[in-house]
Amino acid sequence: MASVSYGMGTKRNPCADREAPLRVNAIFIWQLLTYMATLEHLAAADKLLKHEPDLDESELSERIAYFSPGFDHWLDATLRQLAFRAGRDLTPFEQAEQILYEFVAGQPMAYSVHYRKLEPLMAHVWELKTPDVRLFGWFPKRAIIVLVCGTLKENVKKFGDYAPFIREVIAFRDALALDNPKAITGVGRHEVL
User: Fold this and answer.
1) Residue ranges of the alpha helices (H) in 45-188?
2) Could you read off the pLDDT tens digit of each residue along the chain, which spans 193 residues?
3) What is the tally of structural domains in the chain?
4) CA angle 179, 142, 170 (to 5 degrees)
5) What gap in Å lies between CA 107 and CA 125, rounded to an integer?
6) Can you give the CATH number for the domain in which 52 is found?
7) Does the first or last residue of the chain, that is N or C, have fewer Cβ atoms within 10 Å of its Cβ?
């Protein structure tokens, strides 16, 4: 603590304490950047793959999507091979690409139509939805999703059918070296988008 002599003894300099709030802010910013860097480090180590769709020149990325290596393989090796479903204009792969494009571009997404939190709510697993495809992952931070697995809608017609996908997301998330909390723990849809 700095002190100054004013002729009647030594008094504390009130301006010297301004360093403390700056130190607290610096620690907070460092923690925030460290958390974000962890996702980037995981991507650099190929534990996560950052999805970067070709946006139009007038669009900027407003959200971020990461893929697990297994999800990326499933998209390419399985979903890409599927043909059009009856009455659909897009293949399942094209539907997945479309919703991922809309997510990253920050386009409006309706809760329960395009995305929703799965039960049990405390698992913090979310689903991106298209007419024929379900993509499962979690939000480590607002506007950032990590997708771990996916399936066709026809494979999850009943509530219990989601359990294996929820377990897969939780197992993948738990295995990653992320700071806690590893997922947004709120249940509100506005907390993630």
Assistant:
1) 69-73, 92-105, 163-175
2) 455 444 555 555 555 554 544 554 555 454 545 544 589 999 999 999 999 998 888 888 999 999 999 999 999 999 999 999 889 999 999 999 999 999 999 999 999 999 999 999 999 999 999 999 999 999 999 999 999 999 999 999 876 799 999 999 999 999 998 988 999 998 888 899 9
3) 2
4) 50
5) 21
6) 3.30.2310.20
7) N
